[in-house]
Specification:
With about 80 residues, this protein is mainly α. The chain is built from two helices and no strands. It has helices at about 5-70, 70-80. The longest helix has about 60 residues, at about 5-70.
Length: about 80
């Protein structure tokens, strides 16, 4: 190995490139963690909105069912 005087120079360059790749990988990992956090927040918000809309829908279903059950009484009250 010592026969080539450029060996240490080439090895140093290679080590520098590996360090650069490792630092870039660290940045990519941080971005992935940030994206994971943002996606988790969006999924939670979507679930909450789905729950609220489902509650509103069931409210309307209950109102329609009550009108259907008490339709004769409502007609009698309107046409007195």
């Amino acid at each position: 190995m010592d026969e080539n005087p450029n060996f240490y120079l080439m090895f140093g360059r290679l080590e520098g490139k590996v360090d650069t790749l490792l630092s870039q990988q660290g940045g990519i990992n941080k971005r992935l963690d940030d994206h994971h956090e943002r996606i988790s927040q969006l999924e939670t918000l979507k679930e909450q909105q789905t729950g609220v809309l489902s509650s509103i829908r069931w409210g309307w279903v209950l109102i329609a069912a009550a009108i259907g059950v008490f339709s004769d009484e409502i007609k009698g009250w309107i046409f007195r």
